[in-house]
């Protein structure tokens, strides 16, 4: 049903031929993996998603432990041996919340009910009471009162605008809207602006169809008036009490005080609220009218800056408790190189029902597992080991994947070929790929083999380039999902794919199966397409004799980023970028050389060369590791990758050379000899890392 029909008939013909001869080549199985008539099944994907999302399953809950058992038993049923690796980690839940707005007289105080309502014919009404109250995970408890100040998206730039307007945020309660930066940074920025607390609402202009729109879920895909985006406001990765080491039984833990001093947990209370509540508060903010690009949609009240006259009282009490989380790990052992790993990962825990986030990805993961089982039954064995991971507590701060990577760090860094992540498999239409650049070619090649789920007469690749001649591949510099520990902490090549960009009911109670069935992917074809692409990439990484990595793409990408940096520093006469450009030149030469060797080896096809194959593969595998540095980024020792990491003021941001950029940002503010010297130091560090990488690629001692 999903592949290009010609492929099927070729596949069948080849398959008949191979019945007559001996073992088919791996490529035969790879096309079999894509063939719908034989393997793809959207009904079974739909069934998995339906089962996984029957009730809310937040990390640390009984419901999520049951979901883990479902994944284990499904993998077992697909003949993939699997086990649970659990950790005891610090999670956070709401105990009580009250929010009161005191408008100026003659209006009387408004007590918000802070409830997401069940909708008409809601099939999940009977389990709605299992949805966790809306909150920010790890928010600070407190009882605070202050005048409201509107701070737009709560970015550093927004506070600069407020300062220019002469608005004093000190002692106020900020009202921000979601949408531009990571919510943990929204809270942190408010703290630095000296607000005593912050409310964050889901503005209708961004999540409700732009306003002037009378309908929402379940009639349309938009966020209902009472919908709230829950989420974490933790700015680190992994269990906050075990930074850098695994949360195994009886391990060392930081005290509450030490966690606070670590700087990654918020220091002021915060609460997410709905657009209806956001509008209500906005009506009682006076003062100057905000700029046009700070305003809401058509039906929104006029947004003013304040402070006040409306006064907010927020009383939030949360509990932070150690709970058990469970990663499910399934292993298909490699026949020839069992000590080389290709890892597929997706998380399972959800803020509510999790139909989009993350169980569309879990359903796709189980579909990959099902098809791999079919291949095994037809005689296929992977050359390298394929590991299927289903993470827990991603929503709290990438906790499950981070603890596992921290626990297995050395084995992973010496053995993992690549990590392929899918968080939400489907949010809507449109292919959204991310990768470290040596995987670009593999990603593009794979997209050329999988049918576009929304147009049977073209491939994913064709729809992808329809709008954009050079297919855009995002990079993995943000900390948005479980690839972070693999890529940014230990330097493993990674990719992340999905369909659709933002979706309006994100992290709300309305992210349920009905939303997916009505709006996200009615025929489950996009899910099937993600499974096809994800599995096909894994198969090539696991089976190809020589790893399908192309470092020339990496060299071009580095050149591009260095060019951007040069443009940024155009008026600066102090910083010398020559070492950076020279290191990239060296890297490019090494990439061409290894590419040539690869081609020669593929042409020679001699088994006596197998040690040589292993040698070149090890160079290809280890090159990415050289981009990491033991010390990590300044002030952020866990982030060790010097090319890709989040930017300091937006955890979602995906900058190249984060250390250099942070240093520039700092130098621009302080503008001293010392701060510009540290920019130069960061340039040197990145140049050394790139030089290291080219030495690994070359595979020769100096
Ligand atoms: C697809 O999956 C469903 C449910 O798992 C199963 O009943 C059906 O037989 C499958 N169809 C094919 C063609 O394999
Ligand atoms: C802002 O307000 C606080 C407290 O009301 C005050 O201490 C501070 O000096 C004010 N800052 C400015 C820049 O006016
Ligand atoms: C479907 O793909 C074909 C081939 O690329 C293209 O000509 C056609 O316009 C596409 N249809 C739609 C509705 O996008
Ligand atoms: C699976 O896809 C086919 C067409 O590609 C569609 O007719 C069918 O309804 C889909 N099944 C489900 C369960 O969505």
Automatic annotation (TrEMBL):
<keyword id="KW-0378">Hydrolase</keyword>
<dbReference type="InterPro" id="IPR039373">
    <property type="entry name" value="Peptidase_M28B"/>
</dbReference>
<dbReference type="GO" id="GO:0005789">
    <property type="term" value="C:endoplasmic reticulum membrane"/>
</dbReference>
<dbReference type="Pfam" id="PF04389">
    <property type="entry name" value="Peptidase_M28"/>
</dbReference>
<feature type="domain" description="Peptidase M28">
    <location>
        <begin position="327"/>
        <end position="513"/>
    </location>
</feature>
<keyword id="KW-0735">Signal-anchor</keyword>
<keyword id="KW-0812">Transmembrane</keyword>
<keyword id="KW-0472">Membrane</keyword>
<dbReference type="InterPro" id="IPR007365">
    <property type="entry name" value="TFR-like_dimer_dom"/>
</dbReference>
<comment type="similarity">
    <text>Belongs to the peptidase M28 family. M28B subfamily.</text>
</comment>
<dbReference type="InterPro" id="IPR036757">
    <property type="entry name" value="TFR-like_dimer_dom_sf"/>
</dbReference>
<keyword id="KW-1133">Transmembrane helix</keyword>
<feature type="domain" description="Transferrin receptor-like dimerisation">
    <location>
        <begin position="577"/>
        <end position="697"/>
    </location>
</feature>
<keyword id="KW-0479">Metal-binding</keyword>
<dbReference type="InterPro" id="IPR046450">
    <property type="entry name" value="PA_dom_sf"/>
</dbReference>
<protein>
    <recommendedName>
        <fullName>glutamate carboxypeptidase II</fullName>
        <ecNumber>3.4.17.21</ecNumber>
    </recommendedName>
</protein>
<dbReference type="GO" id="GO:0046872">
    <property type="term" value="F:metal ion binding"/>
</dbReference>
<keyword id="KW-0482">Metalloprotease</keyword>
<dbReference type="GO" id="GO:0010075">
    <property type="term" value="P:regulation of meristem growth"/>
</dbReference>
<keyword id="KW-0645">Protease</keyword>
<dbReference type="Pfam" id="PF04253">
    <property type="entry name" value="TFR_dimer"/>
</dbReference>
<dbReference type="GO" id="GO:0006508">
    <property type="term" value="P:proteolysis"/>
</dbReference>
<keyword id="KW-0325">Glycoprotein</keyword>
<dbReference type="GO" id="GO:0004181">
    <property type="term" value="F:metallocarboxypeptidase activity"/>
</dbReference>
<dbReference type="InterPro" id="IPR007484">
    <property type="entry name" value="Peptidase_M28"/>
</dbReference>
<keyword id="KW-0862">Zinc</keyword>
